[in-house]
UniProtKB/TrEMBL annotation:
Record domain Type I restriction modification DNA specificity: where: 18-168, 208-391
PANTHER family: TYPE I RESTRICTION ENZYME MJAVIII SPECIFICITY SUBUNIT, TYPE-1 RESTRICTION ENZYME ECOKI SPECIFICITY PROTEIN
Gene Ontology MF terms: DNA binding
Family from the record: Belongs to the type-I restriction system S methylase family.
Signal peptide feature range: none
UniProt keyword annotations, A-Z: DNA-binding, Restriction system
CDD domains noted in UniProt: RMtype1_S_Eco933I-TRD2-CR2_like (cd17253), RMtype1_S_EcoAO83I-TRD1-CR1_like (cd17267)
Gene3D superfamilies on file: Bipartite methylase S protein, DNA methylase specificity domains
Top-level taxonomic group: Bacteria
Biological-process GO terms, alphabetical: DNA restriction-modification system
Name of the featured protein: ImmA/IrrE family metallo-endopeptidase
Record-linked InterPro entries: Restrct_endonuc_typeI_TRD, Restrct_endonuc_typeI_TRD_sf, Type-I_RS_S_subunit
Length: 673
């Protein structure tokens, strides 16, 4: 083992030459014994090796100060703003020279002191070992600025953690309300106090009168999976991946480790998963019974083990995600914990019990609306979780760079006057602790710039919030560099997707190549928003296109998408938020965007020739669409708009709805597995 004074093997190699032993900066003094029964329970904080353990009316050390774990949680580092009492399982830091105490706190947090545990029984930290560590010591003004930078970042992390905690608490309330009150025709929660006539008492409690309660097996097929332990081989068998209990988490699938099994080829259809199947656990810990996730958009053939039930909802009766949310709700958890058969180590349910699971069932359309609301909320939560992950990674990187001297913080003029100018290296990195974004990798802001909103049809002041939600939802999307030429380059690929309903699922990937972020969010209640196009920056280099779930027809989706892309491609000036309420939808920019979208979907000369022909029957439309390499609905929708003869073209086999595809795409954009 190398000498500890070099710290090689603990923190990597120091890249600067200004090193001093820590023993020249401070001493670690023993805390004072204070048994729990002698603490008053109020007053100054009491600290042990693992952090604060209580309060006492008297102080032992004047704050602020640093506490270091001595016995038990070896090397843990805690900060106290107040005067405090360290007990005898901890050290407290006593500086012996001029230094920034806060910088020293960050340095000690960075050093892996726990690796210095020398005891064979109860973990213990020898203060002599700490004193021998050689560390990079910058001048005092630089210490202060390093601590300012790390403190600022730490406050941002703490604020983000509080936001996540609040969102998680709100999610539980929202889940309960949506699954017991539902949404009315205006997309609003029903109110049992104001409108008691809309509710009735059921075996599950108060529910909307329109809802039914159905046993699961009347609206879905429940299937057991493949049993392990059979030694199969030969030409009639095949080895395939399968999902087990460990893969099915609460609301998502963990596919980090997927095992394989050999099965008879004739049994594949019996055990194979299909898009939209809901996987629900049969066994495990009691609180994990019935937890489920939806199988979506996974390539290849996957099977499921017999400890994971496969639930396949009936089309147009049960939305897969709605069932998963019901199972994850407090009601669902109570049901499965109540029927679970507990053994010594595990609990389980059987297929008969799962099939009897009473499902509160709104209409299929209301289920889709509820799922959309919950997925929208999940976007906010996942955006904050992604932001927290980035901030934590940034913090780790900054501590590594700043505390070992790899990146130096240059001194400002006031620091030079203190006589430390000679301590600043010529090749240093400019870091302003009051301007933290220099350190944070470029990412979309929480809200779009105020003057960056444009609505396709109709707008009220509520739409500003919708735009902000879109801007937040696209955080973390990785896209190329935008230019008009980049958009032109991907348009043929984009338009080729119009031939099939499933083509909408590939839109984000294609637009990302052109540097355009894409998101689907439900339109705000009371608004008529079809879409929005705006930028995340003042230079107009980070465009965003957002579409609502309003009018979920295939042709409407493509027209709205092309309309919003037109605003970006044609360089239209954004509409100020304060002008939205009175915005003229017949303005030259809007008409130009309409025309651009129409012409890209159907070239004007070909459309004119079609309309001038003797017959515009459905077979003719179908033939014309094939010639254009477009879905029939693109032609039918254009015809309905031009003639107002919607009765001819509205049947679903001509203008199909894509509600399920849009919900699937929205779920994928949220990031749920």
């Amino acid at each position: 083992m190398p000498p500890r004074s070099s710290w090689t093997g603990f923190c990597g190699s120091w890249v600067m030459s200004e090193h001093k032993p820590l023993g020249g900066l401070f001493t670690l003094d023993y805390g004072l014994a204070l048994p729990a029964e002698q603490r008053s329970g109020h007053g100054y904080p009491v600290f042990g090796s693992s952090g604060q353990v209580g309060h006492h009316r008297d102080l032992a050390v004047r704050g602020p100060g640093i506490i270091v774990g001595r016995k038990g949680t070896v090397g843990s580092v805690t900060w106290s703003d107040d005067s405090f009492w360290p007990i005898d399982t901890a050290y407290f830091v006593r500086p012996t020279t001029a230094l920034s105490l806060r910088w020293l706190y960050w340095l000690l947090k960075f050093l892996p002191l726990s690796n210095l545990d020398t005891s064979t029984g109860v973990p213990g930290l020898n203060r002599k070992d700490v004193a021998e560590i050689s560390a990079f010591i910058p001048p005092l003004p630089e210490q202060r600025r390093i601590s300012e930078i790390l403190d600022t970042l730490d406050r941002t992390i703490e604020a983000t953690q509080r936001i996540i905690e609040k969102l998680q608490a709100t999610r539980q309330g929202l889940l309960h309300d949506l699954l017991t009150r539902g949404l009315d025709e205006n997309g609003q929660l029903r109110d049992p106090e104001r409108n008691p006539e809309l509710f009735h008492e059921t075996e599950l409690g108060l529910l909307p009168r329109e809802w039914e309660i159905q046993p699961l097996d009347t609206i879905a097929t429940v299937s057991a999976g493949v049993t392990l332990g059979k030694n199969l081989s030969g030409s009639g068998t095949i080895e395939l991946p399968y999902l087990r209990v460990a893969n099915v988490q609460d609301g998502y699938l963990d596919l980090g480790e997927v095992k394989t099994i050999r099965v008879l080829a004739k049994d594949i259809d019996r055990y194979a998963l299909q898009d939209g199947d809901v996987l629900m656990n049969e066994g495990g810990d009691l609180d994990k019974l019935g937890r489920g996730a939806v199988w979506r958009n996974h390539e290849g053939t996957f099977l499921h083990q017999n400890h994971v039930f496969k639930v396949r909802p009936q089309p147009h009766a049960l939305v897969s995600e709605f069932l998963a949310f019901i199972g994850a709700s407090p009601y669902g958890k109570r049901y499965f914990m109540g029927i679970g058969k507990q053994t010594t180590n595990l609990a389980s349910i059987n297929s008969t019990q799962l099939k009897a699971f009473p499902v509160p069932l709104p209409s299929f359309q209301e289920q889709e609306a509820i799922v959309s609301k919950l997925l929208t909320f999940a976007i906010k939560l996942k955006a904050e979780e992604a932001r927290l992950s980035k901030l934590q990674a940034l913090k780790r990187g900054l501590m590594e760079d700043l505390l070992n001297g790899r990146v130096r913080v240059p001194l400002v003029e006031s620091d030079v006057e203190e006589g430390h100018a000679d301590r600043v290296p010529e090749s240093s990195v400019s870091v302003n602790p009051t301007d933290l974004p220099q350190y944070i990798p470029p990412q979309p802001p929480i809200a779009a710039h105020a003057p960056m909103y444009r609505a396709a049809t109709g707008a009220q002041t509520k739409l500003t919030e919708w735009t902000q939600a879109l801007a937040q939802a696209v955080q973390g999307q990785q896209v190329g560099r935008y230019s008009p030429e980049a958009l032109d380059a991907v348009l043929p690929e984009l338009l080729a997707l119009t031939t099939d309903r499933r083509g909408v699922l590939q839109v984000p990937e294609v637009l990302a190549k052109a540097g355009i972020r894409f998101m689907l969010l439900p339109h705000p209640s009371g608004s008529r928003a079809n879409g929005a196009a705006f930028y995340l920056d003042e230079e107009h280099t980070q465009p965003v296109v957002g579409l609502s779930l309003r009018y979920p027809y295939l042709d409407v989706f493509w027209f709205n998408l092309l309309h919003e892309l037109a605003h970006i491609r044609l360089g239209h000036q954004p509409v100020p938020d304060e002008s939205l309420e009175h915005y003229d939808q017949q303005s030259p920019d809007e008409q130009a965007a309409n025309q651009w979208a129409q012409d890209k979907l159907i070239p004007p000369r070909m459309w004119q020739a079609f309309m001038n022909s003797e017959e515009q029957s459905i077979p003719k439309m179908r033939s014309f669409a094939k010639k254009l390499n477009r879905h029939l609905s693109i032609v039918a929708g254009r015809y309905g708009h031009a003639t107002n003869d919607w009765s001819r073209v509205n049947p679903p086999n001509i203008r199909p709805g894509v509600q399920s595809e849009l919900l699937e795409l929205q779920k994928r954009l949220v990031g749920d597995d």
